[in-house]
Specification:
Blueprint lengths: L13 H11 L15 E2 L12 H14 L14 H14 L3 E5 L2 H12 L5 E5 L4 H9 L3 E5 L4 H10 L6 E6 L11 H10 L3 E5 L14 H6 L4 H5 L2 E5 L9 E5 L1 H10 L1 H4 L6 H16 L2 H19 L11 E7 L1 H13 L2 E2 L2 E2 L9 E6 L6 H13 L4
Parallel strand pairs: 1-10, 3-4, 3-5, 5-6, 6-7
Antiparallel strand pairs: 2-8, 7-8, 9-12, 11-12
Helix pairs in contact: 2-12, 3-12, 4-5
């Protein structure tokens, strides 16, 4: 093979230029290994403080000792063990529906379910601030996409009316939005889904374990005032990697829905099943959600307290009403500087920049956990106050 020309340009040289552009715009992310050191972690989605729980680790260890680690195959071949099957049954009971299906992640669930339910000639109605996994699921489907303004049920109603001649129709929304910390207007969306005979798919990733009298999420939370919410929801997506403290995602709903996904959802059919040990840890996390309601009561109380103190000190927290408390900054570089100042004080609070949020809407995203103390919140508020001029 002849030697390449001395002055040949590497075909991937553009990547260096693109990274320099990200750096100049304050948008380049650096790989990190955890939080590290004595930092108080306000960046994790470990809302109930279960990720480091010894009981979850013990459950995982016991399952690994009995069944080994890797599942070895897709769940449709040989990867679905009795531990996975038991967890699916436990999730179905927890959600109050007939059946459930495990996915490698919540992202895999969203990106797989949407194109499995709607295709050519169909229509999707999606909130403008839905998670990237929902956006990607919509893009993978040839169905026509209709994006309604964030949390705007009137705009959704207008789009539904305009698209009345479409085939299958799917409304999809997060229930608790991961950056703003606000809820979707589920009661209004549920009524529209029933009125227009649409499937309704909701992603409970950030609400499961924290909201609702039994920790089932925003569906349970809103159904207490509007029972139609339970009736209208066709597809429930959740994650085991946030409040539950483990890993993986799930879909819950009717028996026919779960059978259809088992046969046709590509991210399920063509992915190796998660280890049985992970499923065992998830089962223990779900058990603790039932057994220790004080965890969700504590995290909601702490978040409300923090939000009030930040507002009193002049910070903007947007529409947040949950354990996700954004501190609106605007400029990406200032968000990074504030995050660095907090890190110097031993507090990890991530700066969220485009493309996670629109340009000009960068923020610090504070995730409150039941593992936090009042002293942790005091440190955060005091440090932010001193860093205001950054």
């Amino acid at each position: 093979m002849p030697d390449p020309p001395v002055n040949a340009v590497r075909p991937d040289a553009w990547i260096r230029d693109a990274l320099r552009d990200l750096q100049a715009e304050g948008l380049r992310r650096r790989r990190r290994v955890g939080v590290g050191g004595p930092h108080v972690d306000f960046g994790s989605n470990d809302y109930l403080g279960l990720a480091g729980n010894a009981q979850l680790a013990a459950a995982a260890n016991a399952a690994a000792a009995e069944q080994g680690w890797g599942a070895g195959a897709s769940p449709v071949v040989a990867g679905r063990s009795s531990v996975h099957a038991a967890l699916e049954q436990q999730i179905a009971r927890f959600e109050g529906v007939p059946a459930a299906l495990l996915f490698p992640s919540g992202y895999a669930a969203n990106s797989a379910v949407i194109p499995t339910l709607v295709g050519e000639g169909d229509a999707i109605f999606t909130d403008a601030k839905n998670h990237a996994s929902i956006i990607d699921g919509c893009r993978l489907s040839p169905a026509r996409r209709h994006v309604y303004r964030h949390g705007d049920a009137e705009h959704l109603a207008q789009l539904l009316g305009d698209a009345s001649s479409s085939g299958r129709r799917l409304i999809v929304t997060d229930t608790l939005f991961s950056m703003d910390g606000d809820f979707a207007p589920l009661a209004e969306i549920a009524r529209l889904a029933l009125e227009h005979e649409c499937m309704l798919m909701v992603d409970e990733a950030h609400a499961t374990g924290v909201w609702g009298p039994g920790g089932r999420g925003a569906i349970e939370h809103f159904a207490a005032q509007e029972p139609l919410v339970e009736q209208a929801v066709t597809v429930r997506v959740g994650t085991l990697s946030k409040a539950i403290g483990s890993a993986g995602g799930f879909v819950a709903g009717s028996e026919p829905l779960i059978e259809w996904l088992h046969n046709r959802a590509r991210a399920y059919v063509y992915s190796t099943a998660q280890p049985a040990a992970v499923a065992a840890a998830s089962a223990e996390g779900l058990r603790l959600v039932d057994a220790e309601p004080e965890r969700r009561e504590r995290v909601r109380r702490l978040a409300e307290s923090l939000r009030g103190r930040l507002l009193g000190d002049g910070w903007e927290t947007g529409p947040s009403v949950s354990q996700i408390v954004p501190i609106l900054v605007g400029d990406a570089e200032r968000a990074v500087r504030l995050s660095e100042r907090l890190a110097e004080a031993g507090l990890f609070v991530p700066a969220i920049r485009p493309p996670s949020v629109p340009a000009g809407q960068s923020l610090l995203r504070v995730s409150v956990s039941a593992a936090h103390t009042d002293r942790d919140l005091d440190r955060l508020v005091r440090t932010l106050h001193s860093a205001r001029s950054v």
